[in-house]
Design goal:
three-stranded mixed β-sheet, rod-shaped, Immunoglobulin-like, about 20% strand, alpha+beta, about 250 residues, four-stranded antiparallel β-sheet
Length: about 250
């Protein structure tokens, strides 16, 4: 009798431990199935397959299901597997919006940069997934749990496609804008006009031709920039060089 009670107790524990919750993950707007979504519960993890389906273990009758996918808002759902064992999840896209920026003359470059850094702090902090994000340790579910590792497809895809993501493109555009403002503050129209005394049309042409790169400007002192402008002016006014420029334009 005692062995029978132990056997019944063991079966009950295993049944409670091996509860399964299955479901499907789709895009809320398009209805398309999402593969590579990361599913977690208190005791199990899973990844949606190519058709957006998953099955995850739950150690308790009442649990919390979390669904994460890059480009989507995290989905959290309290579940009771004694009442439901199949769920349909629709993820909502998380978009990055860039507010319109009005640029006017004589703006404070430093204040603009600080303002952008604060407004788009998350964008500037964005980076491709790390190795630890792609390869994660897991503990298997069962009577004898075993440790191992799992590759997270969504994070691997995020690494391979990072340079095509909205966050990367926005970050690149913001940094390019900052660099352009810095170049203009050092190689300014006023400074070039003062040192070259060129008329408007020639001045604009000269600035377009000899505007230094961000790498060059960062290595130049104010004296270096003044020397660079004067040296470039000599080249610009040389008959041969000027003829080539005129032909090109």
């Amino acid at each position: 009798m005692r062995y029978l009670l132990l056997l019944l107790l063991l079966c009950t524990c295993l049944a409670g431990y091996g509860q399964k919750l299955s479901g499907i993950v789709t895009d809320k707007n398009t209805g398309q199935r999402i593969s590579g979504a990361w599913i977690t519960t208190a005791s199990g993890t899973a990844i949606t397959n190519i058709t957006g389906e998953f099955a995850v273990s739950t150690a308790k009758l009442k649990d919390t299901l979390k669904v994460k996918m890059q480009g989507y808002k995290m989905y959290v759902l309290p579940v009771d597997v004694s009442k439901i064992n199949t769920v349909a999840i629709a993820l909502e896209q998380s978009t990055i919006e860039l507010n319109q920026v009005n640029i006017s003359a004589r703006r404070d470059r430093v204040k603009d940069s600080i303002s952008n850094r604060k407004e788009f702090a998350k964008t500037f902090a964005s980076h491709p997934p790390k190795f630890t994000d792609i390869v994660r340790p897991v503990i298997g579910v069962g009577p004898i749990p075993m440790a191992g590792v799992v590759i997270v497809p969504s994070q691997l895809i995020a690494l391979l496609t990072y340079k095509h993501s909205n966050a990367y493109k926005l970050k690149k555009a913001l940094i390019a804008y900052e660099q352009g403002e810095y170049i203009d503050s050092r190689f300014s129209d006023e400074r070039v006009a003062q040192l070259t005394a060129l008329p408007d049309d020639s001045l604009h042409q000269f600035i377009e031709l000899y505007r230094p790169t961000i790498t060059q400007v960062k290595k130049m002192s104010d004296y270096d920039i003044m020397t660079y402008i004067k040296t470039s002016l000599v080249k610009y006014k040389s008959p041969v060089h000027h003829a080539l420029i005129t032909e090109a334009f």
